[in-house]
What we know:
Distance between the termini: 18 Å
Strand order of the largest sheet: 1-2-5-8-9-10-11-12
Mean pLDDT: 87
Amino acid sequence: YGTSGGNLFTSLLSRVDDRNAIYAREAGLSYLRELYSGLSFSANYQYKTSYSTFLTNFQRFDKGGEVRDLDSYSMSFFKVNARFAPKEKFYQSRQYRYNLDKEVPVIMLSHSFAKRGLLGSDYSCNKTELSFEKRVWFSFFGYADLLFRGVKVWNKGVPYTLLDVPSVSPSYFVDNDAFNLMDPVEFINDQSLFWNITYYMNGLLFNRIPVIRKLQLREVFTFKGIWGSLRDEN
């Protein structure tokens, strides 16, 4: 749990053993509405049951304050999402969508809701996410891709699997959306701010070095981080 990437090539070249695996069974429905103005709305429902394994044991306090093992728990989540990307251009395949104009700012706001006892939910959870993404050009000096995302879990007493667990890549290959120097489930937050700034110099330095210039190498600088906290109630 808390890792990104699922292909065989990545798993065979893992730098750490993932000892946080759980089983899950889920089903859901989704509805998406897109407008020509670049505004889109979506509504989702997901029913998910998570099962403990010999690697990851679930525990919780009973009414008497004693710690008890938990074989599984279920959640019914409702999620609404709004996305605004004015004049966005993209190519749509059968399975994926490719953005053709990253200069367009993309703003996303979503909220997930689950209430204990409603449609089989074992816990209550409210989570809000807000993100901003854009490419900024510096003329002769290249360009930078900016991504900022904030997450807030409003409830208290939420299981750690439903909190904000940073995405981790345990392989030796760089994953742009995950942390390569962090172990799975090393950090858990109920509120966090994530940023990913990638600067492409387009050969500003390497093109001035005779031997390197023939190799057509390019300079890329990445500044990625997350700041978060966890309340005592969680």
